[in-house]
Please model this.
Amino acid sequence: MSQPASKSILLSSGVLVRLYNSFQKVNTNEADEHLNSDGVLSDPSGAVVIKPCSQAEADFYHTTADAKHSHFAIFIPTFMGTLELNSGSDLAAPTTAIMNPTKAGQAITESPHAIPNAPLVEEAWAPSNGGKIKTDLAIVLENIAAPFKKPNILDVKLGARLWDDNAPPDKRAKLDKVAAETTSKPLGFRIAGMRIWQGTAGAESNGISKDAYKLFDKHYGRTLSAETVRQGFEDYFLLERGAVAKGALRKVIKRFLEDLAGLEYALEHEESRMYSASLLFVYEGDRGALEDALVNEQDESTNGLDGNETHEEDDDEEDAPAVQGLKLIDFAHAEWTPGQGRDENLLHGLRSTIKILEGLLKSP
Model:
């Protein structure tokens, strides 16, 4: 599916301050309340999030506004700028700044120039297992899950090598061990976490949260091998073992494949190194809403081709329902590396993911 032409919207400091004043702290005392962590902020609509980050990640997001990276920028969350936290608090920066739409907690109305009481988010639902950092900085990003009624989310960590050149020997050894014991080494990716809506009937089942989501943490992905990893994607798409995707889910998977092909092309034309970056998949988990979104798109396409109907924007009209979305995220260990060629470590995992999804469209 075609992506927007640009994914970088740098807001002025004044706009960011006004946006901040409307933000609300998301309460995630229960793991099944939200995808993310206590301390991640969202505006009342849920469309925008503030994610605590390192200076390196903020710097990388700023570089994506450069026109020479315009094709790559299509495949990352819309970046709107940075905000300062209060004086250096210890934070476990969540790797996936995603929250369910329309849920919010206590409003924050203190200093407009720094987020008060920088939030501790050690209990974050962070499938990529972001480490604890000391930071005064946060990035403002789109909430990728916002357009969905019941977002089904999958985090796939890319790379057989997961550490950058600045990593100390003990960290390198630890991450190499994780890679060797999981699908990261042979396939260049591993499933880092999932959150899947089970439907209204699922709310009463064991292991299902009260809002009918089933959570899979990082340990789930580590139980899969190169031979069984297809099962993780079958779980994500609610397919029986060995089943071939049909109907609406088949259309969703085909769109993901189109997006992955576009991202592959973009990365093949960049010289970069992005260690421990992740693919974030989102699709509409409510089957009725998914079918409606597909019908809505078909109607719009038909009207556009016929040229017999003109639609004017209505400020009060709800946004069209979303079908699916794919973004590359987590850039704490990312940089452009002119003269060093493309990032084959990242591309290996991306291509392996493509093969798995292609396999869901045919019998194993």
Remarks:
- The chain is about 30% helix and 20% strand.
- The CA atoms of residues 62 and 297 lie 33 Å apart.
- The mean pLDDT is 78.
- The first helix runs from residue 13 to 21.
